[in-house]
Structure to design on (1001 residues):
């Protein structure tokens, strides 16, 4: 599959997951891109390192879909940053994405359990 | 989609956002006590490629359609490169179709639609005609003057009349196209001089008084080297110096589509330009003037017409003798760009021609559609896989349409090149008018429209057909196979259409070919072979009456004494497309109230009948004793004799005719000459009356006469003899259009030759394309049926029966196409009826010929796949599945 140099391919693979992660992270309040990356990294204890090559296009895409909104603000340390927040539609989408994810993860768990039984 | 301006803002914002991201990372690292430069490097490294982020973001924004288009395009190009044969054949087919239609359109455009240069707001210009119950005709100058003086609906009216003039320069005398114009002419059209000025009202006031001229830009360039100081110099027109006051703008051709005037003079100079006619400008009965009007602000065509009706009434009261039946009518300016009534004729024939070549384009489209269908068929697996991978149907249709679009555009571009080439071929056909088949904006737009329509036509059907939802099911299956031995698929139906359309085009070409042949084989009634002709008009060099007559006699004598000539004759008109008639009276015959009798009249020398080999059927030709002073006598042609017999009920040789108005003397008819085709070749000979040149009174003026001579060799070889004979008498008299009589007559069929050539090319292409289509469909059918044929051969079917089966298939499709096509051909023939001669629209011979050609070509096209079918190896065929 696509190695470095084709972020698009990777976005498509990660799409659903990354969207869910972003939406979920914004539930706690608005954040800028850098903050989001840090937040995700620290919450998952560095398991998930968000590739900036996927993060910003994903933010653009979610904004296009109307799930998040952005505005320019000045941060505590005087930086002009673009801050993203969850919209109403975004909240609803988050529920949908979450239940989809739960279904999938549930199914995956069962399959993996089955596999394990077969292995023994 | 994101608009470009908001897009630029987005770019800036993203830039800033990325910079902020990196900066914050750096700050944090510095806070963790990393050295600043190292922190910066690390932050950048971690962020990765800024370009990639931007590219990905752009794709999210609106790259949508542009990007998609780029992807579709490169995919389409890859696909086409992968099958170069398919691409080449498809492109050639499209190019030929578009090239042919574009070329024919450029001809039609040149004649009908191209805007005339330097004519301002042509939509406000109207052509004015006189109508005396026989359709629109040219105007009387005096009527024009009266109307122009009083009209309020027209802001400006202009009169003009073309006339050849002799232009003398130190290097010799040549003849140019002159145009006499009212002083309002250039103003009415809205043209501005390139140099100097146009005419003033007082220059157009007193007949023959002010000799001024405006040069065409081309004449200024060629004869005066484009010198700016030419204003004030003189140009010698018909032996009189004219002061050059201005130069018309480059490319200005007045209102004339086919002939650009070369020099302009005021209308008041008419008596000088038409010396043998005298002053016509004060003769209300004389028509012959073209009139244009520019509508005043706010005036409508309807108001102009109402005003003209009122004026017609008023002039009728004032001048009942000349204006009794006179009405005035307006027509769009476009109508004035050709002689009266010609434009609608040309329009009709342009429409027929365009529709016939459009059929060829349709056939070409069908071929490409068939090619795409068969490719789509071969690609059904690919399509199915892509659909199951989630490509939407829209995306697939778009993809296939993009491929069609690429084919159409490239094909269209090649087509333009073909059109250029074909125009060059058509330009070699000598036409009675000058016309440039230029590729202008109209033509480009036409080609573009044709290309887009073509692309849609051949792209849409296969695109929609192949991506039909059930195709997905075929992922598991082999290509869909027909249940019956041969299904009537879309391809087969298309081939039937193709054959039908080619039958129509072939039949049209065949009928016109027959027409041309008939016209060529027509017995003209005289010997045109080896006759040289030349036109002389010594009147323009000041010869009048007895001197002019003497001049003609001297030239004839000089030419007769040349060793290469056999006979020499003079005639006031050459046989050919010309038809001025004179009103006549017959003794003891009173025409019905309000009716006049007309006959064509020509003045011919005694030697005319023998020179052209025109037999005298009855009575005698002009003899030695018929000279000036002896009682004048007349010879009529057979049609004329017929007319006399019908009118008087007596022997035409007893008839006496007057040609000189109500008081003219009656002259006896002494002979009946055989009919000569003097009008357009397709018309029946008109009643014609000959008057002896030798008897022509010397107190009257000749117009120009034509010199005819036969020699011992080729007609063309007499040319120098004619020139030297004239030069020996008076070198200042120009010798015009020295050409064999055959060439004069050939011009009469120029239109038919042009149409026949175009349709011939169209028919050839139609036949070729249709046979390729038939071949393609059969070849594919054989491929698809390889297994079945293999089985049948394994089971002992003879090669002959396989061959017959495929051939039969081809012929069945052809027969179906023929049946439909013959109906279309009958319709096409009906539309062409006006152009046909000696052959009926539904001519059985022509249609049978077309059918025979088509069947022969069909057999040929079917033979190759049929042979291939017989060579199928049963074992190999069965292994395929």
């Amino acid at each position: 599959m696509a190695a470095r140099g084709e972020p698009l391919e990777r976005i498509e693979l990660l799409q659903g997951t990354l969207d869910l992660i972003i939406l979920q992270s914004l539930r706690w309040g608005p954040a800028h891109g850098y903050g989001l990356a840090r937040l995700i990294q620290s919450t998952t204890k560095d398991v998930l390192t968000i590739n900036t090559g996927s993060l910003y296009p994903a933010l653009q895409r979610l904004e296009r879909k109307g799930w998040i909104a952005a505005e320019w603000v000045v941060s505590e340390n005087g930086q002009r940053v673009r801050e993203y927040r969850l919209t109403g539609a975004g909240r609803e989408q988050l529920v949908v994405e979450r239940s989809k994810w739960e279904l999938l993860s549930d199914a995956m768990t069962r399959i993996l359990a089955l596999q394990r039984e077969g292995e023994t | 989609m994101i608009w470009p301006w908001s897009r630029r803002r987005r770019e800036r914002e993203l830039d800033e956002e990325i910079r902020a991201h990196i900066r914050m990372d750096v700050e944090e690292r510095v806070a963790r006590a990393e050295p600043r430069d190292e922190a910066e490097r690390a932050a950048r490294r971690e962020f990765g490629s800024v370009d990639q982020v931007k590219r990905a973001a752009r794709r999210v924004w609106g790259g949508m359609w542009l990007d998609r288009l780029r992807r579709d395009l490169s995919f389409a190009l890859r696909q086409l490169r992968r099958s170069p044969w398919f691409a080449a054949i498809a492109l050639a087919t499209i190019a030929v179709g578009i090239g042919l239609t574009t070329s024919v359109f450029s001809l039609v455009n040149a004649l009908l639609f191209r805007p005339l240069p330097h004519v301002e707001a042509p939509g406000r210009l109207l052509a004015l005609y006189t109508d005396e119950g026989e359709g629109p005709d040219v105007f009387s100058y005096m009527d024009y003057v009266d109307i122009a003086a009083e009209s309020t609906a027209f802001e400006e009216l202009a009169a003009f009349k073309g006339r050849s003039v002799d232009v003398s320069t130190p290097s010799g005398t040549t003849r140019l196209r002159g145009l006499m114009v009212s002083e309002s002419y250039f103003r009415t059209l809205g043209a501005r001089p390139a140099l100097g000025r146009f005419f003033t009202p007082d220059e157009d006031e007193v007949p023959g008084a002010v000799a001024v001229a405006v040069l065409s830009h081309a004449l200024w360039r060629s004869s005066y080297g484009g010198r700016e100081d030419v204003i004030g110099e003189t140009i010698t027109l018909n032996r009189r110096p004219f002061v050059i006051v201005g130069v018309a703008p480059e490319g200005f051709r007045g209102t004339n589509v086919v002939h650009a005037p070369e020099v302009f003079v005021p209308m008041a100079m008419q008596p000088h330009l038409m010396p043998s006619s005298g002053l016509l400008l004060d003769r209300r009965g004389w028509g012959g003037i073209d009139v244009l009007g520019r509508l005043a602000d706010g005036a409508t065509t309807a108001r102009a017409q109402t005003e003209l009706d009122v004026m017609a009434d008023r002039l009728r009261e004032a001048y009942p003798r000349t204006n009794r039946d006179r009405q005035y009518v307006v027509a769009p300016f476009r109508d004035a760009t050709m002689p009266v009534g010609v434009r609608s004729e040309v329009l009709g024939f342009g429409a027929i021609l365009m529709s016939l070549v459009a059929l060829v384009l349709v056939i070409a489209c069908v071929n490409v559609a068939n090619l795409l269908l068969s490719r789509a068929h071969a690609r059904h697996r690919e399509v199915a896989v892509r659909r199951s991978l989630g490509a939407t149907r829209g995306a697939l249709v778009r993809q296939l349409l993009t491929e069609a679009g690429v084919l159409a555009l490239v094909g269209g571009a090649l087509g333009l090149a073909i059109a250029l080439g074909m125009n060059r071929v058509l330009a070699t056909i000598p036409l009675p008018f000058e016309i440039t088949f230029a590729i202008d904006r109209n033509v480009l737009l036409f080609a573009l429209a044709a290309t887009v329509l073509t692309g849609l036509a051949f792209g849409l059907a296969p695109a929609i057909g192949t991506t039909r939802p059930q195709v997905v099911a075929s992922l598991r299956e082999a290509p869909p196979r027909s249940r019956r031995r041969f299904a009537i698929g879309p391809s087969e139906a298309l081939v039937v259409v193709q054959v039908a359309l080619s039958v129509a085009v072939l039949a049209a070409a065949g009928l016109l070919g027959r027409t041309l042949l008939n016209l060529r084989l027509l017995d003209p009634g005289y010997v045109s072979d080896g006759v040289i002709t030349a036109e002389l008009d010594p009147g323009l060099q000041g010869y009048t009456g007895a001197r002019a007559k003497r001049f003609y006699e001297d030239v004839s004598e000089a030419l007769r004494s040349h060793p290469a000539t056999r006979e020499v004759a003079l005639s006031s008109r050459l046989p050919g497309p010309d038809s001025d008639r004179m009103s006549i009276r017959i003794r003891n015959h009173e025409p019905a109230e309000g009716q006049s009798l007309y006959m064509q009249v020509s003045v011919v020398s005694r030697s005319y009948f023998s020179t052209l080999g025109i037999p005298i059927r009855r009575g005698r030709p002009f003899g030695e004793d018929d000279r000036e002073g002896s009682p004048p006598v007349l010879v009529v042609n057979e049609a004329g004799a017929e007319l006399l017999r019908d009118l008087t009920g007596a022997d035409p040789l007893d008839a006496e005719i007057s040609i000189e108005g109500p008081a003219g003397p009656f002259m006896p008819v002494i002979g009946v000459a055989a009919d000569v085709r003097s009008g357009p070749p397709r018309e029946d000979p008109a009643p014609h009356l000959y008057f002896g040149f030798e008897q022509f009174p010397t107190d009257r003026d000749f117009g120009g006469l034509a010199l005819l001579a036969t020699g011992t060799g080729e007609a063309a070889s007499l040319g120098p003899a004619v020139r030297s004979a004239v030069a020996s008498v008076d070198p200042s008299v120009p010798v015009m259009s020295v050409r064999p009589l055959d060439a004069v007559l050939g011009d009469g069929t120029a239109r038919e030759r042009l149409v026949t050539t175009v349709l011939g090319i169209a028919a050839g292409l139609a036949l070729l394309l249709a046979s390729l289509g038939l071949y393609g469909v059969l070849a594919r059918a054989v491929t698809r049926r390889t297994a079945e044929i293999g089985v049948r051969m394994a089971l002992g079917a003879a090669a002959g029966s396989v061959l017959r089966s495929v051939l039969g298939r081809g012929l069945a499709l052809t027969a179906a196409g023929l049946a439909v096509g013959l109906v279309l051909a009958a319709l096409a023939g009906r539309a062409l009826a006006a152009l046909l001669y000696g052959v009926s629209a539904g001519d059985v011979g022509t249609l049978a010929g077309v059918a025979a050609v088509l069947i022969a070509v069909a057999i040929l096209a079917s033979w190759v796949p049929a042979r291939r079918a017989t060579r199928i190896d049963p074992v190999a065929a069965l292994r395929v599945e």
